[in-house]
Specification:
Blueprint lengths: L9 H4 L1 H4 L5 E6 L4 E6 L1 H13 L13 E4 L6 E2 L4 E7 L2 H14 E4 L14
Antiparallel strand pairs: 1-5, 2-4, 2-6, 3-5
């Protein structure tokens, strides 16, 4: 599929050698003790886009080296200062613009509400 779309198939054999890497890394850390209650994928995605990792218009360039790694999942216990997100970026100004999205995306709660196994039944 990669070859058919004109891509470099070497990425399958050695992704680290062929994939671009960002110049900087910063952690977003938990602001309190508890359990990760929310990880809003949309807000995280908007934060990545604000750093150049996505596009608003078709003509916009995409910086393939920026991204986010989730260090915690919903329901994981955390203590104040524990890393929740690892943010990879190249431009400090773009990181500052994106930071509020990461802050809004992650919450820490005292207790996790049990999530139902089945959300709804489709007939």
């Amino acid at each position: 599929v990669i070859r058919a779309q004109g891509g470099d198939v070497a990425v399958c054999h050695n992704p680290k050698a062929t994939w671009p890497t960002s110049g900087h890394r910063k952690e977003y850390c938990a602001d309190g003790d508890g359990i990760t209650g929310k990880m809003d994928a949309r807000k995280i995605g908007i934060g990545v886009r604000a750093r150049g990792g996505g596009r608003i218009r078709k003509e916009d360039a995409v910086d393939l080296s920026v991204g986010v790694r989730l260090s915690k999942k919903i329901g994981d216990p955390v203590r104040r200062g524990d890393p929740v997100l690892e943010i990879y970026y190249n431009d400090d100004a773009k990181l500052q613009e994106a930071w509020p999205y990461f802050e809004a995306a992650c919450t820490v709660v005292e207790q996790a509400k049990p999530r139902p196994l089945i959300l709804r039944r489709v007939v």
